[in-house]
Amino acid sequence: MNKLISAIIALAIVGLMALGYTSTMHHRAHSNGEEAAIDPKEVIFDHLGDAYGWEVPFDHSSRIPLPIIVKGANGWHVFSSARVTNGGTCEGFYMAKEGDYKGRVVEMVNGAEVRPLDFSITKNVAGIFISAVIVLCMMLSLKRWYKNQGFKAPRGFKGMLEVTVNYVYNDTIRPILGKDAPRYAPYLLTAFFLILTMNLMGLMVVFPGGANITGNLAVTMVMALCTFAITTFTGNREYWKEIFWPDVPLALKFPIPMMPLIEILGMFTKPIALMIRLFANMLGGHMVVIVLVLLIFIFSTMFGLAMGAVTSLFSVLFALFMLALDTLVSFIQAYVFTILSTIFISMAHPVHHHAEAKE
Amino acid sequence: MELFKLEFGLVFWMFVAFLCLFFLLSKFAWPAIIKAIEDRGELIDKGVAYAQEAKSQLDNAKTEADKLVAEARSQQNDILREAAKMRNQIIENARGEAQVEARKVFDAAQLSIEQARRESEEQLRREVSEIALQIAEKVLRSHISDDKAQQELVKKYLNEVETKN
Fold first, then answer.
1. What would you measure as the largest C-alpha separation in chain A, in angstroms?
2. Contact A140 B32 (CB under 8 A)
3. pLDDT tens figures, B135-155
4. Contacts of A212 (CB under 8 A, 6+ apart)
5. A119 touches chain B (CB under 8 A)
6. Which ipTM value was assigned to this complex?
7. Which residues on chain B are in Cβ contact (under 8 Å) with A162?
8. d(CA A109, CA A137)
9. Which residues pair with residue A94 across a beta bridge?
10. Concatenated DSSP letters for A133-163?
11. Beta-carbon neighbour count of residue A56 at 10 Å?
């Protein structure tokens, strides 16, 4: 029975691959005429970057429209992205075709393209909202379980959630932060689950997923800034003393404040490392998968359909492997972000400096 | 490098979404979830400790029960032994008492027999003496019909009395 099911699934996957492959080639051959070559860079940046609409599978032209909210030269404007995506102009706004603002909504002011203040619900923003709502629903459902079932251990998905919460809180946050744990746990747990959900949603190819959210520097920057703000604003006197007057030989801090300078630099490198690590890991994973898939089309335009078919087998296998790896990386990076944030917060609350140094 | 460009709108919405999520979860979810997990952990710990204690108590109870049984058995033996001893003693006492009583009864009987014998002896003697006296009287009356013989006899008796005294 299991073998039969696996065979049917495998056949369905191969069928879908063949369908997608021929339709794409067909589409390309028709729309581009004789010039069937694709621009890999454009495709990659298209997939990794933000957009005003959300792609639908097997269709290159239509997008799920999302609201555009901009403040231009004459006030606020709200309209659907469907009205500007295919070269349209709405209320004076249109999508820039080239230049610095390529693919972004701009308006013409005094003969120059000007970027308005853009609060649009783009693909990434919508993805963030969806992820946040998912996290909210998951946690509230878990909470409702405890409220209704008392001391009964949750089963299935809720059980998995509980294990994860327990792992992050009891096995990571509490051992590091000690008695401070309950104070910072809400931030760390929220960060962990939001990042994890956004990572995993990014790996899904179709609608609710597919937005490269955590592979966007703006998103990781916000997360890193939160950690930076917490460490900076809740750091105790000991923390600041270690920065400006660390426990090192006098020559290292006076008259040239070498160690204080390094420590101050460290204040900023820590969150920046957080930001870049998450961003680069997620971006890299997505990019490798896209490049692997693109290889099919590059090879088939270069060497013909047969070569493309052979490449597709290997590419899909590798892409599958990469996606599996990315699933792992999604969890690891969310966890790494959380544990490093926890460590930075605990470093901002040194209790007994000398006792710690001895250990 | 358009990948490294920061979109202000995205930063803004991310911040808003994260803050909303943070406040909602830290108000409605995290404390409750963490508390529930910790409470359940505590409950399980307590349950395990309770079970262990109960088990050790059960084990102790068995040895204690064994001890009690052994104690009871030895006590029973003691009691039985004591009872046997007491029984023997009671029998012994009873026997002694019975002997004493028997002797008393025997003595009393002997005494009364002696008394009866003495009484009957006395009575016999009295009767014998009376009969003898009567006989003697009769004999005397028939024998001593003359005064001379009477005076002779009186004199003899008087002498006898005088020598006796």
1. 78
2. no
3. 877 777 776 666 777 788 788
4. A47, A48, A49, A124, A202, A282, A283, A286
5. yes
6. 0.87
7. 33, 37
8. 44
9. A89, A106
10. HHHHHHHHHHHHHHHHHTTPPP-HHHHHHHH
11. 14
